[in-house]
Amino acid sequence: MINTDLPSRNEMMAAFLQRDSSYDGIFVTAVKTTGIFCRTTCPARKPRPENVEFFPTARDALLAGYRPCLRCRPMQAAGKAPAWVAGLLADVELEPARRWTDADLRDRNLNPDRVRRWFQQQHGMTFHAYYRARRLGLALGRIRQGDEVTAAAFDHGYDSLSGFNEAFHRLFGAPASQARESILLTVTRILTPLGPMLAAATEQALYLLEFADRRMLETQIATLRRRLNCTVLPGDNAVLEQVNNELASYFGGELTEFTVPIEYPGTEFQCKVWEVLKGIPAGLTMTYGEVAREVRNGSAVRAVGRAVGDNRLAIVIPCHRVVGANGRLTGYGGHLWRKKALLEHEREAWTRNGGR
Description:
Blueprint: H1 9-17, E1 28-31, E2 36-38, E3 52-55, H2 58-63, E4 67-68, H3 83-94, H4 102-107, H5 112-123, H6 127-144, H7 149-155, H8 161-172, E5 183-190, E6 197-201, E7 206-211, H9 217-228, E8 230-234, H10 238-251, H11 268-278, E9 286-287, H12 288-294, H13 301-309, E10 322-323, H14 336-352
Parallel strand pairs: 2-4, 5-8, 9-10
Antiparallel strand pairs: 1-2, 1-3, 5-6, 6-7
Helix pairs in contact: 6-7, 12-13
C-alpha cells in the first residue's frame, strides 16, 4: 500500500542526513545526480539537499527512473529480507533487464504465489509488476537523459520496439517517443489536518490539488493527461513546495489567499465559473444561483453545479465556498464533512483577523 502519512520535506531531509532508523519504511530518498534511491539509514555519502527528492514507496522511485542502492537495498522491507527471497532480489538487481517467468521461479524452488504475496505485501505490487516497473523506469530515465527510444528499449530487455511502446503507454499514459518532449506533470502527496491531498504540477504551475480519497480522482487525472498530453510521475518541484508551504499557512490561519501559480484547462463556461469561485473571499459563501448570475446565465444553476464539481484545484479555487440556496451544504467531492470543516476554519480565521 502507498504510505499516505508522510512527514514534511524538512523532517524527511533531517531523518536522511541523521540516518534516523525510525523513519525506515516511511519513505525512500532519491538522488538526482546519481539516479539512485536509498533507505533513510543508508551509510553512503550524503548528497546536497537540492539534489534530493522523496518518494512514499520504492515503487514510486522505480517508476520515476531511479535504481535501488546496492548498499542499503531499499527494495527490501525494513529489516532483513527472508532467506527464501533474498537470492531472487539479488539476481534481479544483477540483471534488471531480464524477463522473469513463473517457470524461472519454480526452477529456483520458489512458489510463484508465495513470491507474489510477499512482493504485494512488502512493496504494493506483484513480483512481475516490480521487475516490469524496474525495466520501464530505467528506460524512461535513459530517454529523458537524451537516449534514443530504440536504444533504451533494447538495452532494457525488450525484443521489439512495439512491445516496449505498448508497455510504456500502458504504464505512463503516453507513447515512449513523446517522453522527452511531453509535458511532465509531477505528482506528490501533501499532508493536511483534513487528510492527505494529491498535488500535481509542472515546473511552472499547479494543475491539480485534491484530497486523496476524492471521488473521481482518477478521472480528473485522466482528463489532465488527455488535455495536456502529459507524462505523470511522482516527485517534487518548486511549485509543489510552494503549495505545500501555503497550505500549511492556510491551515495555520495565517493565509487566506493563495499565490501559487495555477492552470485550470477546461471549457469556456467552466473557466468562467472557476474565475468566479476564485473571487469568493475566505469567510464568505455564494449560492449556486449567485454564481450563475455572475457568469451572466442565471438559469444555468445545474451547469454551474457541474462546473463547480469539475474543479481540480480544491481550496486554491475554493469550490467549498459555494452552498445551496438556503445555505445548506451540498455537493463536495472531498466529502461534506471537509466542506463544513473548511468553512468553519475560514470563518474563525476571518473573525480572528477582524474580518479582513
